[in-house]
Amino acid sequence: QVQLVESGGGLVQPGGSLRLSCAASGFAFSNYWMYWVRQAPGKGLEWISTINNDGESTYYDDAVKGRFTISRDNAKNTLFLQMTSLKSEDTAVYYCANIVRGDLGKGTLVTVSS
């Protein structure tokens, strides 16, 4: 049974930082590229970052480039998203995803507000 379980969300002030984690199970995590996507209130899903299977290549949407860092620990089947310089427009539910398999976690809410 495939599971993607996100954690690490919360309330943070503008300019602050958070680190999200995604624990994966039920599939060969190290074989797959992984993704972070988000959904802001009242909006659709938005891709924000991708990492290849060995972690050597990463990709970012322009909206988060230079502020967010995606990484992974294949030994622990865990995906990460380090978020810095957070803005109010980063407020969203953040999901990790395996696009190839069509798997999406339940998400973790990030609220950026003073």
Number of strands: 11
Rg is: 13 Å
Count of individual helical segments: 0
Helix fraction? under 10%
Strand content: over 45%
| Mean pLDDT over the full residue set | 97
* Oligomeric assembly: single chain
| Shape by Cα distribution | globular
**Can you tell me the residue ranges where pLDDT is under 50 for at least 5 consecutive residues?**
none
The major sheet is characterized as:
7 strands, mixed
Distance N to C terminus: 40 Å
Structural class: mainly beta
Order of helices and strands: EEEEEEEEEEE
Protein described:
It is built from no helices and 11 strands. With 114 residues, the protein is an all-beta fold. The model has no long low-confidence stretch (mean pLDDT 97).
SSE topology:
Layout: E1 3-7, E2 10-12, E3 18-25, E4 34-39, E5 45-51, E6 58-60, E7 68-73, E8 78-83, E9 92-98, E10 103-104, E11 108-112
Parallel strand pairs: 2-11
Antiparallel strand pairs: 1-3, 3-8, 4-5, 4-9, 5-6, 7-8, 9-10, 9-11
Features:
114 residues, 4-stranded antiparallel β-sheet, globular
Quick recap of the structure?
Helix content is 0%, strand content 51%. It is an all-beta fold and 114 residues long.
